[in-house]
UniProtKB/TrEMBL annotation:
PROSITE patterns: ABC_TRANSPORTER_1, ABC_TRANSPORTER_2. This is Polyamine-transporting ATPase. GO terms for molecular function: ATP binding; ATP hydrolysis activity; transmembrane transporter activity. It is an enzyme of class 3 (hydrolase). Its EC number is 3.6.3.31. It holds the Pfam family TOBE_2. Keywords: ATP-binding, Cell inner membrane, Cell membrane, Hydrolase, Membrane, Nucleotide-binding, Translocase, Transport. InterPro entries: AAA+_ATPase, ABC_SmlMolc_Importer, ABC_transporter-like_ATP-bd, ABC_transporter-like_CS, Mo/tungstate-bd_C_term_dom, P-loop_NTPase, Transp-assoc_OB_typ2. The keyword Amino-acid biosynthesis does not apply. It comes from Marinithermus hydrothermalis (strain DSM 14884 / JCM 11576 / T1).
Length: 346
């Protein structure tokens, strides 16, 4: 489904994107994600397609706001049946129960919102968005108030609903966990889509510095192209020369940005041979489940994400001298001209 919407208030939006399967609309706070969803739902005046000129009640969309907006005095079943006032009571209840079954909550149909967990409330809100059999789901920050296990549970149900019903979903979020699991990813910055494509492609090849930071590429540094001998090029950095892929748009003397994801920084003893070796001192080790997040202070400050077992085996502690390697295939380059908005040609 192709979507294009333009509006001036409350946020200036001029966005065109494709929705297929579970599509995540990723962007920083204030970028216009919620505004765009409300415009598509007909809750804000805007120009665009599809649904141009239709009032909200006639648009075939299921909209789920960020805080679910469940009626506290209605049961789960009654909340889901609420948008079906045009149907006879028996049909309303039957369809509402079907939708609760789709999200795995039929057994809790008579419970009130305060008797449900946060994840269960979210699934009731999803069932209500599905009640009118929409052709598009619009979900605003569906995992923002949930803990990690509940986020995983909700995501499982969401993917299942999209798969079984065939209804595409546009999900506004700044949650990288949800973005990584999507089928399609569109990045909204200052009201414009600056990059879209399969999630794995956007994560591997972000088009701008802003996109790179949004998808977790926290190691980003300026450099200058020294020489090019395809298939390789060399860039000068404060940490010394680095070997990188010779991309078509590179020219000697050009200023670029180079980046690498924390999980792709490899501790030297366990890495394959590469010329890109950097040495530094570890600082700020933090446990994150089965991983250790650390910073390597050297000529540049690199963020690392290491398997906990490997870190324990190496007896890594703050102050440990460490050598790491950066494989050329994992180093991503961006032209400095595109630091804030336009996509690169890489």
């Amino acid at each position: 489904m192709e979507i294009a919407y333009t509006l001036e208030r409350p946020t200036r939006i001029n966005a065109r994107l494709t929705v297929r399967g579970l599509t995540v609309l990723l962007g920083p706070s204030g970028s216009g994600k919620t505004t765009l969803l409300k415009a598509i739902a007909g809750l804000l005046p805007a120009r665009g397609h599809p649904y141009a000129g239709l009032p909200p009640e006639r648009r075939p969309v299921g909209y789920m706001p960020q805080h679910y907006a469940l009626f506290p005095h209605l049961t789960a079943l009654e909340n889901v049946a609420f948008p079906l006032a045009h149907l006879p009571k028996s049909q309303r209840q039957a369809r509402a129960l079907e939708r609760l079954e789709q999200v795995g909550l039929a057994a809790l149909a008579e419970r009130y919102p305060h008797e449900l967990s946060g994840g269960q409330q979210q699934r009731v809100a999803l069932a209500r968005a599905l009640a009118r059999e929409p052709e598009l789901l619009l979900l605003d920050e569906p995992t923002s108030a949930l803990d990690l296990p509940t986020r995983e549970e909700v995501l499982t149900h969401l993917l299942q609903v999209v798969h079984t019903t065939g209804i595409p979903a546009l999900v506004a979020t700044h949650d990288p966990f949800l973005a990584q699991a999507s089928h399609h990813l569109a990045v909204l910055v200052q009201g414009r889509i600056v990059q879209e494509g399969p999630a794995e492609e956007v994560y591997a090849r972000p088009a701008t510095l802003t996109v790179a930071r949004l998808v977790g590429m926290t190691n980003l540094f300026p450099a200058r192209v020294r020489s090019i001998t395809p298939p390789w090029a060399w860039i000068d950095t404060p940490a010394g020369p680095l070997q990188v892929a010779a991309l078509p748009w590179l020219t000697p003397g050009q200023t670029v940005y180079w980046g690498i994801r924390p999980e792709e920084v490899q501790v030297a003893p366990f890495a394959s041979p590469t010329p890109n070796r950097l040495r530094g001192r570890l600082a700020h080790l933090t446990r994150q489940g089965l991983f250790i997040k650390a910073r390597l202070d050297g000529a540049v400050e690199l963020e690392l994400l290491l398997p906990r077992r490997a870190a324990d085996h190496l007896h890594l502690t703050p102050g440990t001298e460490l050598e790491v390697t950066l494989e050329p295939r994992y180093i991503h380059l961006l032209p400095s001209d595109f630091s804030s908005g336009a996509p690169s040609s890489s």
